[in-house]
Design a protein that fits this description.
about 375 residues, Rossmann fold, seven-stranded mixed sheet, 14 helices, about 15% strand
Amino acid sequence: MNNLDFHEEPFDEGTLCKLEMYRKYLRSWLPTFINHQYVDTIQIFDFFAGPGYDGENKPGSPVIASQEIRIALDGSKSRDGMKIKLFLNELDQNKYKTLQSNAAVIKKENPEIDVITENKEFSDLFFKSFSLMDRKGVANFLFLDQFGVSEITPRVFESMINLDRTDFIFFVSASIINRVKKHPDIVKYIPTISEEDWQRMTGNNVNRILSDAYQTCIPTDKSYYLSNFSIKKGANVYGLIFGSGHPAGIEKFLRVAWEMGGDANFDIDGDNIDENQPALFEVFDKPTKITEFEHELEAKVLNKEIRDNNQAYIFSLQRGVLASHARAALKNMCKAGKLPKQNFHLSYDAWRKSNAEPIIHNR
C-alpha cells in the first residue's frame, strides 16, 4: 500500500496504535494549557493530516484532535480570551477536498476551534508557520506523520527544539534506514550515526539508535528531552520520536508509552514476558530496559554522580523510564544494604520544589 491509497483502506494495527498514542497524549497535554496563566493560544499542527477518516470511517488524526479538544473544554472552566487553533495540512488534492469537508464538520461541532486547512508542501508550510509557533503566549503541539524519512531534516529538527512550550511527535520509516544502511539518499536526511551503531543496528533497535542520534543534535547546554517508541507494522518497524523542552511534557509521554508497552508495541528485547503467567522469580518479569536502567542508576548513585532526588528523577526521564521505576530501584538498593533506609520523593511536583533532597549513603 502506498501513501496515495493509505486512507482508503482500514487502518492497520500499527496505525491504530500510533493514533491511540496521539489521542492519549493530547488528553494529557491539552488540560495543562487550557488554564495556563501565561498561555492565551493553543495550537495543534497536523502537517500530514490525511482526509480525517479511514476507509471504514475510523477517525484519523484531525478528528481525534477535535474530539480531544472537546473533552478538554468540557472538563475545564471556561476562560475568556483563550484561543484554540487546529492546523490541518494535506498535500494530496483528493484527500484535501475530503479533509475540507470534514474540517467544516469539526468547526460546526466545535465552534470554539479555529480550524485552518492547507494544501502545501510540508517544508514550505512549516517555515511559513514558524512565526505563529514562536509567538509569546502560545503552546504548540506538532504532529508530523511523514511517509518515509525525508521531511524532518536537521534544520526542521533544530527549529522545533528551539520553540518554547512546544511538544512534538514525528515518525520515520525506521525499517528503511536499517534496510539500506548508510545509503547516501537516506543518511542525508537523518543525524549522524556512528559506525558502531550502524554495525549493531537491527530491524528492532533501529529507532532507539535513531533517537540517540537525534539526541546528539541537541546542544549540550540545552535542557531538552527526547523519547522514542517503535511500532511494528507487518514485517516493518515504524519509529516515533517525541520531544519536549520540559520534564512535565516528557513525563506525560512516558506514561502513555508505558501504558502501551514501554518503548515498543512488540517484544523489542525478546523478553517473552507473559503478564498472565508471572515467573517464579520477579527478575524474570522485568523488561530488559528497566533492568539496564536499574544497573546504570545504581552505579551512578554509588559513585555519587547522582546525588539527590531531582537528579535521579531527571535521569529516569532521560533514560525513557518512569520516576516510579527509579524510586523502586532506589528502594531495592536500601533493601540490599547498599544505601541506608530512607524515603525518596521522585516526581514532577518534588522536582519543582526549590530544595533537592540528598541521597544518603552508608557511612
